[in-house]
C-alpha cells in the first residue's frame, strides 16, 4: 500500500524565507530520522509563512502505513511554530 498526503501549513513566526526554511528543515529531518517516510516541500517555496509538504509511505499493510502516517502527523503537530491547516490523503 502507498499512502501519499499533502499537508498545508502556516508558520506564523517566520519573518523571512531563511526562518521558514530553518523551521521546515528541523521538522523534515526529524520526520526522516524517526519514520519510514519520504517528505518534501512541494509548493509555496517562495512564501515565508506558508508551505505545502508531501509525505509518502510504502508498506505491505494499510494499517501499518496508516499508523506511520498518524505518528508523523503527531510529530508535526508537536512543533509549536507550525500549524497544520489542510491535509489531503490519497491511497495508491
TrEMBL record:
<dbReference type="Pfam" id="PF04456">
    <property type="entry name" value="DUF503"/>
</dbReference>
<dbReference type="InterPro" id="IPR036746">
    <property type="entry name" value="TT1725-like_sf"/>
</dbReference>
<protein>
    <submittedName>
        <fullName>DUF503 family protein</fullName>
    </submittedName>
</protein>
<dbReference type="InterPro" id="IPR007546">
    <property type="entry name" value="DUF503"/>
</dbReference>
Amino acid at each position: 500500500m502507498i499512502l501519499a498526503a499533502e499537508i498545508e501549513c502556516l508558520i506564523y513566526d517566520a519573518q523571512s524565507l531563511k526562518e521558514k526554511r530553518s523551521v521546515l528543515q528541523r521538522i523534515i529531518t526529524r520526520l526522516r530520522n524517526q519514520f519510514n517516510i519520504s517528505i518534501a516541500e512541494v509548493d509555496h517555496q517562495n512564501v515565508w509563512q506558508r508551505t505545502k509538504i508531501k509525505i509518502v509511505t510504502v508498506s505491505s499493510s494499510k494499517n501499518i502505513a496508516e499508523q506511520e502516517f498518524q505518528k508523523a502527523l503527531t510529530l508535526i503537530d508537536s512543533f509549536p511554530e507550525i500549524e497544520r491547516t489542510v491535509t489531503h490523503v490519497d491511497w495508491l
